[in-house]
Write a structure and sequence with these properties.
Oligomer: single chain
Order of helices and strands: HHH
Number of strands: 0
Helix content: over 70%
Number of helices: 3
Structural class: mainly alpha
Number of domains: 1
Largest sheet: none
Distance between the termini: 54 Å
Strand content: under 5%
């Protein structure tokens, strides 16, 4: 019985890590090189709009894919 409780406890402790791994496995990274000036202007524009650069890029990609279905 103690072994069962220990195994259950370990599974509960590892669950958040396993969930994080699963969600990361469904994502891909996109790296973009921008000149420093463009990066800074983009960063400031995003801040002014209350959004992150990631949110803006994701929105751009979503809009682009709607216009250009694969």
């Amino acid at each position: 019985m103690a072994l069962l409780k220990a195994a259950t406890s370990r599974a509960q402790q590892n669950a958040p890590r396993e969930l994080e791994k699963a969600s990361k496995a469904q994502e891909k990274r996109l790296n973009v090189n921008l000149d420093a000036s463009t990066h800074e202007r983009f960063r400031i524009a995003c801040m002014r709009n209350g959004r992150t650069m990631k949110e803006e890029v994701e929105q751009f990609v979503a809009d682009y894919l709607k216009k250009n279905p694969s």
